[in-house]
Amino acid sequence: MSRRSLPLLRSLPFPTTDVAASLVVFLVAVPLCVGVAVASGVPAELGLVTGIVGGLVTGLLPGSSLQVSGPAAGLTVLVYEAVATYGLPALGVIVLAAGLLQLLMGVLRLGRLFRAISVSVVHGMLAGIGLVLVAGQLYALAGARAPGSGPANIAGLPGLAADTLESPRTLASLAVGAGTIAVLVLWRRLPAVVRTMPAPLAAVGLATAVTAVAGLPVAKVEVKGLLGVVDLPDSAGLAVLTGTGAMATVLAFTLIASAESLFSAAAVDRLHDGPRTDYDRELIAQGVGNTLCGLLGALPMTAVIVRSAANVQAGARTKVSRVLHGVWLLLFAALLPAALGVIPLAALAGVLVHAGTTLLPLSALVPLWRSHRGEVVVLVATAVGIVATNLFEGVLLGLGLAVLKTAWDTSAVHLEVSGEPDGPILVALAGNATFLRLPRILGTLESLPRDRPIALDLTGLRHLDHACRTALQDWAGRHHAQGVEPVHAPALH
Questions:
Q1: Dist. CA 12–CA 228, nearest whole Å
Q2: How far apart are CA 57 and CA 83, in angstroms?
Q3: Structural domain boundaries of the chain?
Q4: Ramachandran category for residue 120: left, alpha or beta (phi over 0 → left; psi -120 to 50 → alpha)
Q5: In this structure, are residues 183 and 386 in contact, taking their beta carbons and an 8 Å threshold?
Q6: What CATH architecture does domain 413-492 belong to?
Q7: At 492, is the pLDDT very low, low, confident or very high (cuts 50, 70, 90)?
Q8: Beta-strand pair 413-418/425-433
Q9: Residues 304, 267: contact at Cβ < 8 Å?
Q10: In whole angstroms, what separates CA 482 from the centre of its chain?
Q11: pLDDT 10s digits, 170-191
Q12: Which of 345, 352, 387, 355 minimizes the C-alpha distance to 142?
């Protein structure tokens, strides 16, 4: 950079570090935008469209000043299923409806409620997405087509391995994808000077160069251009929303995109000392972005922690960096679309396999199991539910288990039995007596001698629910009927 240009940069109305940060985020975003689009079963350019909207539109709106929005690996599985079920023209309508729902939730100030979602459910959701994403992208890594659902993809992996070893073409594709993953894994161990280039860009760039030089017979990204992929919603697409299945998909898009964006905002807030996120405004910003993406027929957007962390670490100070990253994406998509056509699909699959593994909280499972085993059960059940069924049902399963676990934890009750050998028996209950604890309470009472008077002391209970009260009344009635002295339980009346 010349000395003449320095005064010009100093005169800018924003920190100059924002310009450098925007370039870093742009270089990180390009392979991820394209990779997520290809994995979702849509044209590669639609990923860039979502990234552009995330920068130029969502980036300008208030909420979180430093997190960056765009297409996310976390919604890849759901988008793929939606496109396979309802067709590509319906995707824009579904995203549009999800964006409007996000706007409504933001206006109603429901953004902060997402902070009450169990962390185990969120980690389980990400783990399930990661498993399904990795299982599906292993097929793309070998240049094959995935069977479809999560269980089918996992069940077909042994057959995929056998077919790969028999075909030189699939071996070449696998080598490109495996090499991409190796670069991503080893990149952090390289000298700092080398690591100035983002790892995803370096990995995809090296894979593209090797493929071109060696003339490897691997599939590459198909290019149509921005104008060729933008598809405005029509009446046929709107008719999709009359079905309950499509509305369930809209709800899943809304909840998962909102949760991922707001949890990302919380994580990004811990990375910098600037203004904290306004969750309701951020939800409105995400809603505006998804509404526009839906009108353009593009992928849904969320805030993406990978790009957001890169933005903060590159020295971004204001929202200018994320807006400029959208400008660079627009210029790239408009001026250099042919550059996408030389990228091997196996390299993008390698990027997404690596991204999928980062969603698995493997390092946190052992310490979590030692301290909170119930949370691990919720996490694993959510992940398995997503793999076995789908994203929406798996998350519902996780939320249900989290509620049950909370109810169990808060219904802790302490029973203490005392008394003289030949005198009345005193049973003191303390804590929260709910139906979840009835087996223990009734088991203790029914194990006591039937020919001695029993006094129940319920003064230590903070809560006695209807089911527990009724069961204790029934037990007291049975004890009275045996002819012994009445049970003293004033709290039952």
A1: 36
A2: 25
A3: 14-358, 362-410, 413-492
A4: alpha
A5: no
A6: 2-Layer Sandwich (3.30)
A7: low
A8: antiparallel
A9: no
A10: 59
A11: 888 999 999 999 999 998 888 8
A12: 345
